[in-house]
Amino acid sequence: MFNFFIAALVVALAPGPDNLFVLAQSATHGARAGFSVICGLCTGICVQTVLLIVGVSALIAASPIAFFVLQCCGAAYLLYLAYKSFQVRAGVVKLEERDAGGEMRAGGEGAGLSFRRLYLRGIIMNLTNPKAVLFALSFIPPAVDMSRDMSPSLQMVVLGAEFVTATFIVFGSIALLAGAVKKFMLNSPKANRNLNWFSGCVFVFLAIALFLV
After folding, report:
1. Which end of the chain is more exposed for a tag (fewer CB within 10 A), N or C?
2. Whole-angstrom Cα distance, residue 25 to residue 32?
3. CA-to-CA dists, residue 80 to 16, 57, 98, 104, 168, angstroms
4. Residue by residue, what is the 3-state secondary structure of 83-131?
5. Contact indicator for 53, 167 with CB cutoff of 8 Å
6. For the chain, what is the radius of gyration of the CA atoms?
7. Cα Dmax for the chain
8. Are the C-beta atoms of 164 and 45 separated by less than 8 Å?
9. pTM score, two decimals?
10. Per-residue pLDDT tens over the stretch 92-120
11. What is the full DSSP assignment across the chain?
């Protein structure tokens, strides 16, 4: 299964909705916020693997109505995130701050975003992406070796874990690089505003791209 891991690294490196999402969030809110999003995306991959094993993914892909509803949900959520990003006004944004309850927040959108909310963003981003369903169907099952003693379901669990690991490595590198840019521009109100507008434009692009299957 080492060959699958190498292929997963290559897939994670290829420009796509998820790594663009991580790039936008890390550049806007910092590397730690980016890692929170990545954990959400990886959780989504785990859920996608389970749905694949039980056959739900195949049902969604085979149903034009279910697939279209998933597209609409994903696009609506991304457009909501774009709207929130475009609302941010110019001003010095703190990389980290704590709310009244002591929970860590990332600066960038109004009163800030908790890392819990960013984690949920990653989960929702993955689970409302119909292309993730198609990708899981086309990438994981073909790698299953029916001649092995290990059951196909268990093999898919292992393959899903490998894909999560590869995703975390690649996306983590993106978050660190984008976070470094954010930290460099921390004291520039104009740069912070432009980063939020960049993030908003990425969300709009991703929303449109969901229908270009």
Report:
1. C
2. 10
3. 20, 25, 25, 23, 26
4. HHHHCCCCCCCCCEEECCCCCEEECCCCCCEEHHHHHHHHHHHHHCCHH
5. no
6. 18
7. 60
8. yes
9. 0.77
10. 344 344 443 444 444 444 335 678 889 99
11. -HHHHHHHHHHHHS--HHHHHHHHHHHHH-HHHHHHHHHHHHHHHHHHHHHHHHTHHHHHHH-HHHHHHHHHHHHHHHHHHHHHHHTPPSS---SEEE-TT--EEESSSTT-EEHHHHHHHHHHHHHT-HHHHHHHHHHSGGG--TTSSS-HHHHHHHHHHHHHHHHHHHHHHHHHHHHHHHHHTTT-HHHHHHHHHHHHHHHHHHHHHTT--
Contact between 118 and 25 under an 8 Å Cβ cutoff? The reply is yes
